[in-house]
């Protein structure tokens, strides 16, 4: 068995924070990274732009200075060495510009412009732009000499330092404002969640299932959450009330046979009796015990209908024939017989549940039917039980599908009122329909299953494809 991984220190710290703080912290980290990257981009772009502007100024100055170089050539042609090259007097650079003319070895031959702090020692010569000693320097080769133009970077550095401070301060301020706004937004967004949590805690503490979560306006996620939670609470409250009613009614129904059984036991034990009297008393109790057992089994079967359905392929005709055979004694005792009209029909259901549903429908037809014949008919994904007589009052049908409910005028007939309720619950479990039909001289109940793949793959009834039409014979005598 794999042992769960231990939480890291960061996970432990985050686990102690509220969801609001976690959302705010995550938002702050993302926003801070975004702002810092944006600030770095602004700083880099400003540095590039200002450096490019300074370089353009140095190129223009170098172009003017190159045109102002005086080479001092040997005009008389007497073979004497020419004087070192210099700038013409018209070259007057402004401001802090410095222009220098260097030999190939780096020795300064001439200067112009800002020369107060100019160094006299040779400089290494490198063509192009460089930054050295706090100055931006452009070096160009002119014949066998080098022209160097430079300008201090103090203004550029000062501007960039000021920009960096402004970006840092502004970023810190925006991050702080974003954290506050993020926490406020998280608080507003999670208020419905708090309401749901408080309502659930109140229901768990007080057991008041009538309480509901305040509905959030709109159609966003929180509105759907509160609406779904309220719907769930409505269903939960209805289920709990039905369970309470069922428990109260079941306790009442169980109390009656138990009270009768206890009375007979007390009567039997009131005084010493002969063995024959004890046997007679115990024999009378057997019927009560059997009724109590049937009631208990019906309650258990009804309670099991709430479990997830385990559907399988079930053949209705075979189960109907088996149930009809088991009800022969009941039919004979009522002076009736069962006629079968069966066609092969495979449906998706539960074998034991189908057997119980058919038995309940058939027993009701035998108990309350006004004719001497009960018809059990099976067709394509459908079962029908037909009995003579008007049947129950149509206005009372929905009430008869509730546990322990029985029709008017049947108090003298044995039963617990669970038969139709169990059949109805099983039908819902299989997504089938329980349909009553009233005719002039008969009443029937149809159990209609949804058409599915089970019907298409069912085997034929016999090698010739004929469906059986059976009638269980009426028995006389014992």
Give a quick rundown of the structure.
By secondary structure, the protein is α+β, with helices and mostly antiparallel strands. The strands form four sheets. A six-stranded mixed sheet has the order 13-14-12-11-9-15. It has helices at residues 9-15, 19-67, 154-206, 221-268, 275-304, 316-326, 328-333, 351-368, 397-400, 419-429, 453-456, and strands spanning 69-70, 86-87, 98-102, 108-113, 128-132, 135-142, 145-152, 312-315, 337-342, 346-349, 373-379, 382-388, 433-438, 442-448, 469-471.
Verbal overview:
By secondary structure, this protein is an alpha+beta fold. Among the domains are: 221-299, Helix Hairpins (Orthogonal Bundle), CATH 1.10.287; 310-407 and 416-471, Heat Shock Protein 90. 50% of the residues lie in helices and 17% in strands. It contains eleven helices and 15 strands. It has helices at 9-15, 19-67, 154-206, 221-268, 275-304, 316-326, 328-333, 351-368, 397-400, 419-429, 453-456; strands at 69-70, 86-87, 98-102, 108-113, 128-132, 135-142, 145-152, 312-315, 337-342, 346-349, 373-379, 382-388, 433-438, 442-448, 469-471. The strands form four sheets. Strands 13-14-12-11-9-15 form a six-stranded mixed sheet. It has a five-stranded antiparallel sheet with strand order 4-3-7-6-5. β5 and β6 form a beta hairpin. α4 runs antiparallel to α5 (275-304) and α6 (316-326) packs across α8. The longest helix is centred in the middle third of the chain and has 53 residues, at 154-206.
């Amino acid at each position: 068995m794999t042992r769960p991984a231990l939480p890291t220190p960061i996970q432990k710290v985050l686990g102690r924070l509220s969801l609001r703080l976690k959302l705010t912290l995550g938002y702050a980290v993302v926003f801070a990274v975004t702002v810092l990257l944006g600030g770095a981009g602004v700083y880099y772009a400003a540095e590039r732009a200002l450096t490019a502007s300074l370089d353009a100024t140095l190129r223009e100055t170098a172009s003017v200075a190159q045109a102002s170089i005086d080479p001092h050539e040997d005009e008389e042609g007497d073979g004497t060495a020419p004087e070192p090259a210099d700038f013409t007097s018209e070259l007057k650079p402004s401001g802090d510009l410095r222009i220098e003319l260097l030999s190939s070895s780096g020795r300064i031959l001439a200067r112009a412009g800002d020369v107060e702090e100019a160094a006299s020692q040779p400089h290494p010569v490198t063509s192009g732009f460089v930054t050295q000693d706090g100055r931006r320097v452009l070096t160009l080769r002119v014949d066998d000499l080098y022209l160097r133009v430079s300008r201090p970077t103090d203004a550029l550095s000062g501007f960039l330092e000021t920009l960096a401070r402004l970006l840092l301060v502004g970023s810190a301020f925006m991050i702080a404002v974003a954290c506050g706004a993020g926490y406020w937004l998280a608080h507003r967004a999670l208020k419905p969640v708090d309401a749901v949590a408080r309502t659930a805690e109140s229901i768990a503490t007080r057991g008041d299932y009538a309480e509901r979560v305040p509905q959030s306006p709109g159609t966003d996620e929180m509105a759907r959450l509160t609406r779904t939670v309220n719907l769930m609470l409505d269903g939960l409250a209805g289920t709990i009330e039905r369970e309470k009613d069922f428990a109260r009614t079941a306790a009442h129904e169980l109390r009656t046979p138990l009270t009768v059984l206890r009375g007979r036991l007390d009567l039997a034990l009131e005084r010493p009796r002969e063995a024959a009297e004890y046997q007679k008393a115990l024999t009378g109790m057997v019927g009560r015990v059997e009724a109590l057992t049937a009631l208990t089994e019906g309650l258990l079967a009804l309670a099991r209908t709430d479990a997830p359905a385990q559907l399988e392929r079930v053949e209705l005709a075979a189960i109907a024939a088996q149930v009809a055979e088991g009800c022969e004694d009941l039919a004979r005792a009522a002076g009736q017989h069962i006629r079968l009209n069966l066609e092969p029909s495979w449906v998706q259901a539960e074998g034991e549940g189908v057997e119980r549903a058919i038995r309940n429908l058939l027993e009701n037809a035998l108990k309350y039917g006004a004719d001497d014949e009960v018809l059990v008919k099976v067709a394509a994904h459908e079962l029908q039980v037909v009995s003579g007589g008007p049947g129950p009052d149509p206005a009372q049908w929905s009430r008869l599908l509730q546990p322990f409910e029985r029709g008017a005028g049947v108090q003298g007939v044995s039963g617990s009122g669970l038969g139709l309720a169990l059949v109805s619950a099983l039908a819902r479990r299989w997504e089938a329909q329980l349909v009553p039909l009233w005719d002039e001289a008969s009443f029937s109940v149809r159990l209609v299953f949804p058409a599915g793949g089970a019907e298409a793959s069912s085997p034929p009834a016999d090698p010739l494809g004929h469906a059986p039409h059976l009638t269980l014979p009426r028995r006389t005598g014992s």
